[in-house]
Amino acid sequence: MKAYNEVPPADRLPVRIGALAIYTAGGLFWAFLPYFIGLQTESGGMTQAQAGSLGSSYLLGFTIASVTALSWLPNFNWRVSVAAASVLIITALFILQGTQAYGVSIISVGVIGLMMGSLWTIAYRIFASTSHPDRSFATGIVVSYSALAAISYCIGRFILPSSGLSGAAYLISAIVLVLGLVGGLAIPVRVADESRDDRGVSYRPSAPVVLALLGIFTTGFAFAAVWAFAERIGVGAGFDRNAISPVVASNLLASAAGSVLATIVGTQFGRKPAVSFGIAVMAASVIALSGAATFWLYALAIVGLGFGVGFVMPYQMATLAVLDAKGRFVVLIAAAQGLGSAAGPYLGGLASDLGGMQLLILMAVAILVLSGISFLVINTNNKKA
Q1: Domain boundaries, the chain
Q2: Strand (E) or helix (H) holding 79
Q3: Tens of pLDDT along 115-127?
Q4: Candidates 3.40.50.300, 1.10.510.10, 1.20.1250.20, 2.30.42.10; correct CATH number of 7-192?
Q5: Global pTM?
Q6: Both ends of the chain: CA-CA distance in Å?
Q7: How many C-beta neighbours within 10 Å does residue 103 have?
């Protein structure tokens, strides 16, 4: 057994706990997003498109944090970054719960996204630096999504009925404060980067790399377009709000379960069948939502959507990693997910305003088909994938 000082920093238990803490903190607003959009359309006087654009603003900020990570991540003090991000998130939440101005809301939500994206970027960097990154990423998804599911349920079931947006904002702020403190104290200033020699590495992505990023983008787009309005779909179908809350929360648990299954199955059946299966589950779940005449069909569809995206994500990421031998474009995974997830709520809300939830669902299914096709083209023309 290695002495403690011989263990790589990212493998040390306190560091892993700290990374899990900031990873969970970075997902809090995403878990709250369906409720937040519902509140804005019901009591905030916004249209579906306006409310959806708030979700897009959050995700756009999240994406900017990951796109710019190559410049700031190696140079910033991560402990200071976590502390600053936590303070700015809490400040933005305080402003958000006290205003009904659309402009102020969209800026506040964008700041929350930028800061939470920074937390995720740091956590991802630590996970990737461990001796077993696959296990670290899987653990991160399971622990974080399980915690987020419990928090999401409590907000929807207990906090919103009694104290609305203000109560939810205060609760999320308290959790960010605790997790930010734990993470900021536990993680290192930064993990030493054994940088490779990038001289001569092309910055022009190959066609398969572009298609792989497109597949990640479209999957995130389709999922976010439906996820952001999951609560609205249930309310529109006439289901009891108290029953909808645990269903929305279970989506996160299902995503964790999907990622665990992907880790267990691995590539023993090949990535092509695995991705095809995951996309098919997502599409079938979205279609089921269009005819969810019973609460149990609605619940099954929401759970299936979460399971499908949780299962398909690791395979899509692994495909890009295999295609990108130099590791130049792997860092764009979070950006592709973020951009897709940012566009989804806004265009989903616009589709809903124009043609109701049926048009939203039709759009999501069409985008999922495009995602599946992009992966099949890669797999057909590139044996490595």
Answers
A1: 7-192, 201-385
A2: helix 78-97
A3: 999 998 888 778 7
A4: 1.20.1250.20
A5: 0.75
A6: 37
A7: 8
